[in-house]
Amino acid sequence: MVTSLLRAVVPPFLILGSMTACAAPEPFSCPAELGPTEQKALQTPAGWSATVEGSGPARHALTGFMINLGPVTKSDGAIYDDLRQKKDGQGGVTETATWKVDALDDAYAVCTYHRTAVVLSRPLKGYTECRMVQERKRDSAFRLKEAGCR
After folding, report:
1. 39 Cα distance to chain centroid
2. How far apart (Å, rounded) are the C-alpha atoms in residues 79 and 84?
3. Nearest-angstrom CA–CA distance, 73 and 96
4. How much is the average pLDDT of 106-122?
5. Could you give the C-alpha distances from 73 to 39, 65, 119, in angstroms and in order?
6. Which residue in 95, 91, 97 sits closest to 134, CA to CA?
7. Closest CA to 31 of 56, 54, 64
8. Which of 14, 32, 40, 43 counts the most CB atoms within 10 A of its CB?
């Protein structure tokens, strides 16, 4: 009865418009690789010269993820709410960290990349959960497989 009364009083396009305005933001993942960055020394000590290793643009693979409480310049990371490890039969481990971010004020997702101080950050207003998955093969270090929020 309430629905039919609502339809009679409010035009349908207004109902749909208000429903989409309240929709949760689209899930996102950290890009697996950061595009080219400018790598150069602004000053070099006397007697030294500075060069960039390799030819072409440096590759900056995703190496880290955190939830920051405030802008990146504040450097105040949130500790994950849950950490689970799953072992495989070959000595490898998959580790999944989860943050509940809906109750955090002014939180940001921060993606860090290999061989650069450049980070990507994004505000988390409207998101409820972030997750980071790392894998380790037998006798190796953890490597970040994926990170993102929904």
Report:
1. 23
2. 14
3. 26
4. 95
5. 21, 15, 11
6. 95
7. 64
8. 32
DSSP H or E run through 16: helix 12-21
**131 DSSP β-pair partners:** 98, 148
Q: Enter the tokens of residue 45.
A: 């000590």
Q: What is the mean pLDDT of residues 72-86?
A: 94
Percentages helix, strand, coil for the chain (3-state, rounded to 5) are 15, 40, 50
Q: Are 76 and 83 in contact (CB under 8 A)?
A: no
In one letter, which amino acid is 5? L
12-26 b/e (C-beta count within 10 Å ≥ 16 → b): eeeeeeeeeeeeeee
Helix or strand holding residue 18 (H, E): helix 12-21
For 16-54, how does the pLDDT look when each residue is reduced to its tens digit (9 = 90+)?
444 445 677 999 999 999 988 888 889 999 999 998 877
Residue that has been written with the tokens 């988390």 in this structure: 124
| Strand duo 129-136 + 93-100: pairing | antiparallel
Q: Residue 134 has which token pair? A: 């790392």
For the whole model, what pTM was predicted?
A: 0.78
